[in-house]
Structures are given as C-alpha cells and as structure tokens.
Amino acid sequence: MGRDAVVRVLSYNVRSLRDDPAAVARVVRACAPDLVLVQEAPRFFRWRKPLGRLAAAAGLVVLAGGAPAAGPALLCSLRATVESTRDELLPLTPGLHRRGLSTAVVRFGAVRLGVLSYHLSLRKDERYAQGAMLLERLAAMGVEHAVAGGDVNERPKGRTFRRLAGELQDGWAVRPWGGEYTSTPPDPHQRIDAIFATPGVEVLGCGVPAPGTADPAVPPFTGDDLLRATDHLPVLAALRVPGARS
C-alpha cells in the first residue's frame, strides 16, 4: 500500500515582480510551500534572472514556465522529484494578451501529482474557452491526482469559475482556511484567484494566508509585505494526496 503525502501549494500573481520582489519572497518563504504556482512571472528580456532570484530567496527552484508559458510558472522545493514539465501557449486572440499554461508531473515519495499554473483572459468568451483547455490539459497529463492554481480573472459565480468548480474541487469552497478575497490587497473584496484539485485529493484547508510563518526557523511575513508585494493576495492550500496503491 502506498503512503499518502500532505503537500502545501501556493498560488500567487506576482505582477512580473514589478512591485517589491523582496516582499514577494518573504511571503512565499514564510508559507513553506512545496509547490508555487506563479502568475505574471517575468517573461521578457532576461526574464530568467528575476524568476531565479525569487526562487532562490524563497528556498525553492524554478521548475517550469515564465516566457515559454507567457507568464505562468512553477517553483518547487527539493522535496519534489520532477518527472516531466510542459509549457503550452494558448491560441492568441488578436488585440489581447497571449496566455499559456505551465504544467509538470512531480512525485512526493509514492505520490504522483500533476501541477498546472494558469492565468485566464479578461474577456468572457476567451476565458471560457481557456477554462475548457485547462480541463483538457489536466485530463491529458496521465495522472490520477492533480492541482491547478491561478488567476481566474472572474468571481465564483462567473461562468468559467463555475465550470472549473463543477469538475474540480474549489479549495476555498471545500474547506476555507484563512482569508477568502484575493483582490486587491489594500481592499480585499473579491475572490478571483483559486486553487482547484481533482476529486481524489483531500483538501485540508485553502485560503489567503494570514501574516506569520509556517516554519519557526523562517522569519514571518507581515501585512505590510502583502501590501507591498504585488496587486493580488496569495492562496495557500494544504492537500492530502493519495499514494499509489499496490
């Protein structure tokens, strides 16, 4: 019989690290994540350096994404063993930003987990089509259990959000933990960022983390860090993922 694994997953729109990268790093490190699903990672000239500096400052490594995925990226701790990665550009609508998905399959001991970072369109029809592509990509990863996190650009009552929550578990709705609203840090009033998990994953808790730290050996982040870091609040989920059963 395989052994389950508890995995900490953080989703965070960092606005290309244009605000306060040090504050972003403090927030990420204090949350002690195993996986970080980044949106709006640096993706233009010399984009690898700032993304690499963020990972190093947070005690993580860059797994995938950035420019090849048009913004979504994946970071991971050394606890994760990487099986594969794939960055995918979504169809371009003239006049709108290019969107993409950053994906990987990782292992935590006997546990295999698909991981996907997304940032959906601001336009309703394109966003809905991208939601369908997200679900198709998850299904094509060849794993029983997966997690997807990112910026939906839509509230839970929206058509695309409801479609994703209809096929996947919406972490906050299943087991709220911490704050609900992710936009904007000075006045949180809407939930437009979410972590979704496939049905076999147990959501232990999901929400916006409160200032503090998950590891007493790591300096805590503050409310001021959340205000300075970027224009979104992060979403943190603790997931129990079943291992392979013999």
UniProtKB/TrEMBL annotation:
Look up the domain of life of the source. Answer: Bacteria
Tell me which InterPro entries the record gives.
Endo/exonu/phosph_ase_sf (IPR036691), Endo/exonuclease/phosphatase (IPR005135)
Q: Which Pfam families match?
A: Exo_endo_phos (PF03372)
Q: Residue limits of the Endonuclease/exonuclease/phosphatase domain?
A: 10-232
* Name assigned to this protein: Endonuclease/exonuclease/phosphatase domain-containing protein
The organism of origin for this protein: Streptomyces gougerotii
